[in-house]
Design brief:
Number of domains: 2
Strand content: 15-25%
Largest sheet: 6 strands, mixed
Shape: globular
Family: Belongs to the UPF0065 (bug) family.
Keywords: Signal
InterPro entries: BUG (IPR005064), Bug_dom1 (IPR042100)
Number of helices: 11
Strand order of the largest sheet: 2-1-3-10-4-11
CATH class of the largest domain: Alpha Beta
Helix content: 25-40%
Order of helices and strands: HEHEHEHEEHEHEHEHEEHHEH
Radius of gyration: 19 Å
Protein name: Tricarboxylic transport TctC
Mean pLDDT: 90
CATH superfamily of the largest domain: Bordetella uptake gene, domain 1
Structural class: alpha/beta
Pfam families: TctC
Number of strands: 11
CATH architecture of the largest domain: 3-Layer(aba) Sandwich
Distance between the termini: 27 Å
CATH topology of the largest domain: D-Maltodextrin-Binding Protein, domain 2
Length: 332
């Protein structure tokens, strides 16, 4: 239960946030060529969907004079993407969207990378995790599911997730500790593939982000059991997110939320960072962004500057603690 309790307290503390004060004035610097937008994850997942939506909004509303291209670099649990940006010192035309593999990948793989090797730009949102089962499953609540895991044999139930020793598996280990039984964890490259495996009945459950599974839920293929957050999702839209109880309400005391943020190459000037901060502030004002936030049931926030750096630094400490307790730290 130690990891579950840590998830239920430490991450909640780190996830406390507020809207940042009005951002910096629009910088004079502007891109001079195509901007590469790196995704350290596979296609179809939450990071991929958000990055591509942002690219489309920027293009539609002509928020930037130069083109933006989205590039997936998911190898090594995202290490391919992070190392690419780390190795692009001074590159003013390369940005990367990050999830919690910003912290988990170097800890789990030993790859020589830290968030401090990049330049923080801004936090865009915090993403939620939901416990999902197939709609034909007999489990109507999180308690039903956990009770079944408890009653079953070790490794009987299959849980799919994005990557190994990342966010999805951290939450899976916390569920194991609550249930007192092992789950068979099956990793995939992206959240889209994970959701499809559950729709196809090849696995028993997932902890997909809302945006990765909402279309299957609305189509009647999946059933949400609980959200791993401190409070119910408040997002408005066609999906009834507010009807999903928190896992704590359902007797499963686990809380976890994930960063959706922007970093860029090391060694760039503050003027360049200010440009991208302003760009993403404009994206957030569009109706497309607001609709995406509602559809994906995100916890909306915007942080930049020292506030963002502090949040990231605190989250790095929390993730190291969680990864250590889960036994996921790479051997030296």
């Amino acid at each position: 239960m130690k990891l579950a309790k840590t998830l239920a307290t430490a991450l909640t503390t780190v996830a406390i946030f507020g809207f940042a004060a009005a951002g910096p004035c629009w910088a004079e610097w502007k891109p001079k060529k195509t901007v590469e937008f790196i995704i350290p994850a596979g296609t179809g997942g939450g990071a991929d969907q958000m990055a591509r939506m942002i690219q489309g909004v920027i293009q539609k509303h002509q928020l930037m004079d130069q083109p933006m291209v989205v590039i997936n670099k998911s190898g090594g649990a995202g290490a391919e993407g992070f190392m690419d940006v780390k190795g692009s010192a001074g590159n003013e035309h390369k940005i990367i969207i990050t999830l919690s593999n910003l912290f988990t990948t170097p800890l789990a793989t030993g790859v020589p990378f830290s968030w401090e090797d990049l330049t923080p730009v801004s936090m865009l949102a915090l993403d939620n995790f939901v416990l999902w089962v197939n709609s034909s499953s007999p489990y109507q609540s999180a308690k039903d599911y956990v009770d079944a895991v408890k009653a079953g044999a070790d490794s009987q139930f299959k849980m799919a997730g994005t990557g190994s020793k990342q966010e999805d598996q951290i939450v899976t280990v916390a569920i194991e500790q609550v249930a007192g039984k092992k789950l068979t964890y099956v990793p995939f490259k992206g959240g889209g593939d994970v959701a499809k495996q559950l729709v196809g009945g090849h696995i028993d459950s997932t902890v997909n982000n809302p945006i990765e599974a909402v279309s299957f839920w609305q189509a009647g293929n999946l059933r949400p059991l609980c959200v791993f957050a401190a409070s119910r999702i408040e997002a408005q839209g066609t999906a009834k997110w507010q009807d999903i109880p928190t896992c704590k309400e359902a007797g499963v005391g686990i809380e976890y939320q994930m960063l959706r943020g922007i970093f860029m190459s090391p060694g760039v000037s503050q003027e360049v960072v200010d440009y991208y901060v302003g760009l993403f502030q404009m994206v957030r004002e569009t109706q497309e962004w607001k609709d995406f936030m509602a559809k994906g049931a995100f916890t909306q926030t915007f942080l930049s500057g020292d506030e963002y750096k502090k949040w990231v630094a605190d989250a790095a400490v929390v993730h190291k603690d969680l990864m250590t307790k889960a036994g996921f730290i790479a051997a030296n």
